[in-house]
Write a structure and sequence with these properties.
Layout lengths: L1 E3 L5 E6 L36 E8 L5 E6 L3 E5 L4 E7 L2 E9 L10 E8 L7 E7 L3 E2 L3 E5 L5 E5 L19 E2 L26
Parallel strand pairs: 2-3
Antiparallel strand pairs: 1-9, 2-11, 3-6, 4-5, 4-7, 7-8, 8-9, 10-13, 11-12
InterPro entries: Osmotin/thaumatin-like_sf (IPR037176)
Keywords: Signal
Length: 202
């Protein structure tokens, strides 16, 4: 995961349309790509950060989305164009799964926002965040630092539309990653997931 200075403990997450996903119907795509956005700040010795981490999730998918938060085991809906604001205390670590609003129960194959805000490797709480398609892919997700717009993690490529066949379409708006249980240090992504290699975990 990429460390973020605790001087800025607010993340902005954009979810772009999946387009050719079975449930996506419109095309309000985010236009920025990783190449267009400056690198985020490196972690430095700073005063301890705020008491909580704020993650703002903006739905630009063109459809309503469902979320599942782990380990809280909470589900929710983010309406098309809406912003969900989540607050997490220090020592929290978990994930937010994203899928079509038609699938409330977590499937286990969704695109994930993975983050933590703890002090296990530092003298004070540090933010780590990544976007993961290791289990599967539903919608493209990009993560930025809310203070300066710096790119942190994620891939906005609409994998459903790039011509590579989903190796295992589960019929619930997600593509199962066939290499999810393979050693992540040595795996070559499946062709469907390969366009996001190095931007999101694949």
């Amino acid at each position: 995961m990429k460390p973020l200075s605790t001087a800025v403990a607010t993340l902005a997450v954009l979810i772009a349309p999946a387009l050719a996903s079975p449930m996506a119907t419109t095309t309000n795509a985010a236009t920025a790509t990783a190449a267009d956005i400056p690198d985020g700040p490196a972690a430095t010795a700073l005063d301890p950060g705020p008491a909580s981490l704020t993650i703002r999730v903006t739905n630009k998918a063109g459809v309503d989305l469902t979320t599942y938060q782990s380990p809280l085991q909470q589900t929710g809906i983010i309406r098309n164009g809406a912003v969900a604001v989540n607050y997490y205390p220090q020592k929290w670590n978990g994930s937010i799964a994203i899928n079509s609003h038609k699938y409330f129960a977590p499937i286990g194959d969704e695109s994930l926002i993975e983050a933590s805000y703890d002090d296990k490797d530092a003298a004070f709480a540090v933010v780590d965040v990544d976007i993961s398609y290791v289990d599967g892919f539903s919608y493209p997700i990009m993560c930025y630092c809310a203070a300066n717009g710096a790119y942190l993690s994620g891939c906005d490529k609409k994998l459903w539309t790039l011509g590579n066949k989903c190796p295992s379409n589960n019929g619930k708006a997600t593509c199962v990653n066939p290499k999810r249980k393979v050693d992540l240090d040595n795996v070559t992504p499946d062709p469907f997931f390969a366009p996001c290699k190095g931007l999101a975990y694949t």
